Amino acid sequence: MKKTAFLLLALLVLSCSPKAGGEGADAGKKFSAWPAPAEVRTYHGAFSRNPEQRLIKLEGLAGEVLSAQVVVKCNRDIEGLSGKLSDLSGPSGAIIPAAAARVRYAGFIPVDETMELTADPLLEESSVAVSANQAQPVWLTLKVPRDAAAGVYEGKFEVSAASGDRAEFELSLEVLPAVLPEPWDFSFYLTLWQDPSGVARAHKVKVWSEEHWKLLERYAGTFGAHGMHAITTSIIYDPWKSQCGYPFDNMVEWKFPGEYKPGAADKLTWDFTVFDRYVQLMLDAGVRKTIHCFAMVMGPGRTTDANIRYLDTAGGGYRTAEMTAGSPEWKEVWKAFLPVLRAHLKDKGWFDKTVLGFDEKPQKVMQEVFDFVIENAPDFKVSLAGGFPGDERKWGDEVILHLDEVTNEHEWEQYEPLVKSMHADPKRFISFYTACEPYSPNNELYSPLRESRLMPWIACKYGFDGYLRWSVNAFPENVWSQPNYNWHSGDMFLVYPGQEGPLDGLRFEMLRQGIQDYEAIKIARELAEKAGRQDLLKKLDEAVWQGATIDSCEWIPYIEEARALVNAVIRELGPGA
């Protein structure tokens, strides 16, 4: 793949940083390489207490995507560093081919909160250059074939340089006797709000051009492969009031002949062409559970602004009708639009999975919305991320609580009954979210990678269906050199704009691993319940508490240790055991 200016910048940052003095446990070695836990972010100054370690151990379900990292460091510059996996040989002559693996290289970007060059984007290069005395992560992603027989598979993983320096590792993969569902069938409900406009800006193509749609198809494929379930659509222009520095373009085109005046809503028309194409593209990629429509009132927070930008079909160009939620003119336009939206969604077969989305709106604002929806569109579902979740007249069909409301004991007592009742209802979703707060745990660029994997374990511990993050691809103007805008570094994105589509980030990979853990726990519970093994159900409860550990005065364990307890139950009870 050709390098873009973005990737060149990332590699430049990686290779041109000041050279360290060779300090650390592996100082003096010319070419050193060692395996590191995938939950630990590698920095340039990384070292190993056991640099001669040459074993990589993985275990997982058939169909699972597993990650491993090897760290390479040398006291002189490295040219042409690359990694290569052999075929893996398993039971009764079974083979997992090397083609089941991807080898990528973590790029480093500057993070203001820590003043550290930080590994996160996974560069899809054939090799990379590394400056002397700077650690470089080589990231191995292995997708276990869905038809892989249970058992242990063994092979080799090698890292080498153009100079001839090399290090070889034994790789042992245990395939457990169960199969992970396909990502679109995951029970875990992952909501990452998307911004197609951000993709166009980052890749410097025209919004809704064919070049843009080709890119969006690749982004959708990545989202589906990581288990995303919710489609984000903008049914008005700029529903988040340009909070990330630019507007989210609308997918539904509002039209009116001339300047809109109250009392003329019957002359409004709508074009759903972009909306339909985006929704279908995401559905085809496996993002299939819900369609979020933003927004009857702009967000987030207390604002009641609900402006409508529309195309003036008489004079040409765009105009804006300014209005506020609850006002007569607001009620008029939404009384006109919602029946049309309903009819269109029903015609497409999408109405049952569509929700009207709202972002952190307080009770005063949402009471106006609920009053209107109850009276005029009671069959529409409502989704609320933060803010007022509803009341006995109408609860949100999807409610997302902030993590602080979960971990605060007093607030949790208030919300726990709601979480239990919604979790028990297959037609409703209850999730939690993080944004720029809390500082920890989170999945910002300063956050330990463990915390990205942690989120599904928290959901499992407290009985949530899933997790929401407010944006996966709203890119700051200079994402490679300044990865923050108004909030913490990385707050607006989990992937990066590559030459031909998205580049995964380490946080995104660890979030997927946590989701797969959630699915494995579900499989293990079902097996233990079917077998009547109360001892193993207790063991799984202990695993969840261990894996969901947030604060500890002692060593916070790797989540992989908790997952190993889950794997032990599947190993004992799995259908192929």
Automatic annotation (TrEMBL):
Q: Keyword set for this entry? A: Signal
Boundaries of every Glycoside hydrolase 123 catalytic domain copy:
193-523
Quote the InterPro entries the UniProt record gives. Answer: GH123_cat (IPR025150), Glyco_hydro_123_N_2 (IPR053850)
Question: Which segment of the chain is annotated as a signal peptide?
Answer: 1-20
> Superkingdom of the source?
Bacteria
Tell me the ranges covered by the Glycoside hydrolase 123 N-terminal domain, including all copies. 52-160
Per the record's keyword annotation, is Signal included, yes or no? yes
The name on file for this protein is Uncharacterized protein
